[in-house]
Amino acid sequence: MTYPWQPAPPPPPRPAGPPLREPIGHHSDLRVLRSAYRWQRRTATLTALGYFTLFLVLSASAPGVMTRTVAGTVPAGLLLALIQVPVTWLAIALYEYTARRHVDPLADRIRREAELDARRGALR
């Protein structure tokens, strides 16, 4: 506007199509994705570290339990140490399961919406 008494220019025409929504950066889906990913990390980490911490606490505070034989001549401490490998595999499987079931679908949906927003922004 050059002069204050001139009328304001008309707004640009809106493109035809579905109604516009908030851009992806202001969307609550990102908060949902962050919390799902945080829950996934905590679950898998606490599974592996929880068992390992239990093993360390038993080793330090209950040596009588750890030296007791379980199956013939196998001490309980060795058996609990060997169980650490399957528990780690369980933590990895739990991480993969929660990723495929909860986190990846959210991330895919947000990615598709971001691509739509980018295309809409390029059309304007």
Automatic annotation (TrEMBL):
Pfam families: DUF485 (PF04341)
InterPro entries: DUF485
Organism domain of life: Bacteria
Amino acid composition bias (Pro residues), ranges on this chain: 1-21
Region (Disordered): 1-25
Keywords, ordered alphabetically: Membrane, Transmembrane, Transmembrane helix
NADP among keywords: no
Transmembrane segments: 43-62, 74-95
UniProt protein name: DUF485 domain-containing protein
Species this protein is from: Streptomyces fodineus
